[in-house]
Each structure stands twice: as C-alpha cells, then as structure tokens.
Amino acid sequence: MPIRNRRLNLFPYRLDRKEEPSRPIRTGTRRQDSRRHDSRRPSGRAFVSVFFLLAACVNVGCGSKAEAKRTLSVFVAASLAEVTDSLSARYRVDYPDVKIRFNVGATSTLARQIEFGAAADYFLSADTVWSTYLVDKIPGTSVARLPVTNSLVVVSAIEEYGSVAALQSVKRVAIADPSHVPAGRYAKQALECLGIWSSLKSRVVPTADVRAALAAAVTGSVDAAIVYATDIVSVSRANTYSSTIPGECQSTVLMDIVSVSVSAGDVAAWKDEWRRTILSHDNQEVWAAFGFQPQGRE
After folding, report:
1. Fewer Cβ atoms within 10 Å of its own Cβ: the N or the C terminal residue of the chain?
2. Is the pLDDT of residue 120 over 50?
3. Distance in Å from the first CA to the final CA of the chain
C-alpha cells in the first residue's frame, strides 16, 4: 500500500521551515516538549494495575496453562476405543474438569508416533509386542496388563461367506496388515493354524487397522474379514454374518496400558486415577458390554 506523505511533528521544530539545523532551540519549546513526553509515560496507577494483573496470572495459571494441567492425552488402539471412552465416562464423574483427548489408530502407528515425540500420557496397546517396544525405547515408561482378553471372528455381509469353512472359497478377505498390526498378525497365525494361509495369502487385502478390515467386509468391498469379536458388537447383526475362529487356532490376545509421561505431585494423582479406572476389576461389566472376556488376576 502506498504510504501517504504526511508532516509528522517528530521534532521540537518544523523541518519544512527554512531554519538552520545549528540554530539553538528555544528554552520554552524544550520545556513544552519535555512536558509532552512526560504526559505519555505510564502513571503510577498504571504500574499498580499491571502488577496486580501479573499476580493474578501467577495464582490462577493465566487460563491456557491451567487448562493444560488438567488435560489427559490418551493414545488408544482402534479396537479399544469405544470401551475406553465408556470407562472414561466413569472417571469423569469424580473429575469433571479433566479434558481427555483421544488419538485413535493402529497400535503400531500410535507406538511409532510416541517413539518419535508425540505427547501422550497413556497408550492402550492391542498387544504386548508394541507396549514392550515402547518400554524398551523410552526410559521411564511402565506397563500394566489390561484385565481382559479378546478373540477372533470371521465376518461377512454375505451369508455364504460368514463361516470359517467358507474362507477357502472367498475371492478377497480383509485383515489388518500382518506386518505390523496386532489383529493382522493374530489373523495370519489363525490362518496358518487352519492350514489355509498359503492358498489364501494372494487373496488377502491388508488394511491400516482392524476397523478398516471390518468396514471393508460390512460394505461388501471384500467377501469377508477376520477381526476381533469386540469389533462386531456395534455392527447390526441383521446385515452381517459371523463365526468364531476355533479355540485351538485362537491366539491369546493380551493387551496393555503404557504409562508414558505422568507428571509428579498433585497432577500425577488425578492422571493415575484414570489408569486405575481402566485397570479396575470392578469395571468388568463395562468391558463385557463390548465383548471382552475377563482374564485371571496376575
């Protein structure tokens, strides 16, 4: 934007006057200029106001910092998202001012994010491999076993493909990527146990996580998918068909909660209470409502 030429009274004499620069400035003008600048200085009353404003910030945390101290960052595997939210609702009864921010995704993806510096207080892992990985990579982290287990099922939107026996005849079957996603690794192990992995692997469609595999089956993008039993709880049974993988080919699905960065003092107490809520055996009915099975106390 062009700058308009204005005559700014920045000096005690006018530059547009034809005066010699060396001409002395009148004493009266100097006093008037001094008074002008003095009037622009903050008064004592203004300094007092600023002091009390800063003191108030120290006491209450100046808004954003106070809120940050009451925010919980939780990274949770896709298969554990809904039950974690329900358990958190119980926690909020006693801690209504705490904000819980969830980051939901594949266990492997979340673990990598935390490894490379993503801010997280807790990480709910769908297996023990990635939880152990983080504990080894990040000093100060700790791990605890969740009080439940899970199982695998075959699911399809087509009745003839909704059984384990029908897996040999499907054109495409979706599983979470077995190279790094726990559900996919369990699915591959089940197919190997059933003796059909070699003939079926060319028809396997790997997905980013187990929920993507479920979505592919429900929408008919693939003939069937192998997912957790808990994944199909929220799916309409009228539109899907499922069967459980035989017990001898079921992997023991164990899950962990990793404490990543918990602050000391009073803040740690309210954060740790959330962890206790997740691990409590008193909340088995919440886990059961989402299809998880209890396991013995360790």
Report:
1. N
2. yes
3. 72
- What angle in degrees, to the nearest 10, is found between the helix axes of 182-194 and 128-137? 140
What's the whole-model pTM score? Answer: 0.72
Distance separating alpha carbons of residues 294 and 281, to the nearest angstrom = 9
One-letter amino acid for residue 109 of the chain? T
The yes or no reply on domain 70-150+254-294 and CATH 3.40.190.10 is yes
Give the mean pLDDT of the chain. Answer: 81
Confidence class of residue 90 from pLDDT cuts 50, 70 and 90? very high
Amino acid symbol at 243: S
Four-way CATH pick for 152-249: 3.40.50.720, 3.40.190.10, 3.70.10.10, 3.40.50.1360: 3.40.190.10
Give the number of other Cβ atoms within 10 Å of residue 161's Cβ: 21
Name which of 297, 193, 203 is nearest 247 in CA terms.
193
Cβ neighbours around 70 below 10 Å, total: 14
Angle at 237 between CA 175 and CA 231, to 5 degrees: 35
Q: Give the confidence band of 252 by pLDDT, cuts at 50, 70, 90.
A: confident
Burial 4-41 (b: 16+ CB within 10 A, else e): eeeeeeeeeeeeeeeeeeeeeeeeeeeeeeeeeeeeee
Q: Which of 153, 154, 177 is nearest to 166 (CA)?
A: 154
Spell out the domain ranges in the chain: 70-150+254-294, 152-249
212-242 residue pLDDT tens: 999 999 999 999 999 999 999 877 666 789 9
